[in-house]
């Protein structure tokens, strides 16, 4: 698991700007979505992955715990699958221009629908009532390349918990866009995975300073349970 290191000066800056270290601790569990980004064989399975991140395997227990807590407190779980289709070669030509041909071929092989690489990691606790969403860019919230924002709004969900891999690419891209699409956004510190602690922590710091909140798995679950209990008490 990553060693989380958020400098105190960063926390102090957040408190000075927002008045609290955790501006979304009052989240409404019934309006909360767990977003699990790219925990697919194409990033996690030896011999199949085009961009292997071994740390992604380590966060699976935390993601499963979060999924269970979100469902139990009235929220919803979304499994995001990074997806390649042939239109990407033209519409996202800049990506492929920056990538060696053999690397592009491996990405196409492991990210195309119907391949082993495209499948979700087998140890994830995916339930029938969860939702799977394809995305065709790094961000799961980029209009035109994912239906996720529209689905969330249609279901009355306004808060998103970002987990998955890799922290500093698809997860941070999704988190930043989620905030700019007006969702309350929390990156889960031990529910995201990168290739190094440095990349992981840098991404969390960048996001936390300006875009949203960061919490550990246990902090998120505590907020979900406490706020759900409060809502039940208020309704009695």
From TrEMBL:
Segments forming domain Isochorismatase-like: 32-219
Coiled coil regions, renumbered to chain: none
Pfam families: Isochorismatase
InterPro entries from the UniProt entry: Isochorismatase-like_dom, Isochorismatase-like_hydrls, Isochorismatase-like_sf
CDD domains: cysteine_hydrolases (cd00431)
Gene Ontology molecular-function annotations: hydrolase activity
Record key words, sorted: Hydrolase
PANTHER family noted in UniProt: ISOCHORISMATASE-LIKE DOMAIN-CONTAINING PROTEIN, PEROXYUREIDOACRYLATE/UREIDOACRYLATE AMIDOHYDROLASE-RELATED
The name this protein goes by in its record: Cysteine hydrolase
The species this protein was found in: Nisaea acidiphila
């Amino acid at each position: 698991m990553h060693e989380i290191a958020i400098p105190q000066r960063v926390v102090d800056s957040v408190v000075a700007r927002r008045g609290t270290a955790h501006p979304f601790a009052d989240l409404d569990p019934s309006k909360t979505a767990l977003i699990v980004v790219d925990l697919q064989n194409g990033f996690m399975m030896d011999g199949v992955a085009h961009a292997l991140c071994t740390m992604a395997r380590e966060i699976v227990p935390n993601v499963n715990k979060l999924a269970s807590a979100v469902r139990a407190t009235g929220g919803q779980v979304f499994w995001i699958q990074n997806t390649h289709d042939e239109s990407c070669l033209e519409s996202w030509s800049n990506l492929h221009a920056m990538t060696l041909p053999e690397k592009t071929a491996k990405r196409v092989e492991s990210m195309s629908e119907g391949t082993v690489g495209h499948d979700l990691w087998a140890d994830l606790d995916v339930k029938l009532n969860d939702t799977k969403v394809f995305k065709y860019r790094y961000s799961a919230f980029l209009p035109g390349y994912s239906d996720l924002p529209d689905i969330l709004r249609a279901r009355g969900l306004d808060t998103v918990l970002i987990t998955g891999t890799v922290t500093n690419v698809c997860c941070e891209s999704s988190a930043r866009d989620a905030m700019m699409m007006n969702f309350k956004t929390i990156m889960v510190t031990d529910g995201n995975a990168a290739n190094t602690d440095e990349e992981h922590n840098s991404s969390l710091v960048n996001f936390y300073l300006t875009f949203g909140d960061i919490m550990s798995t246990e902090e998120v679950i505590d907020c979900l349970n406490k706020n759900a209990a409060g809502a039940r008490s208020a309704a009695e």
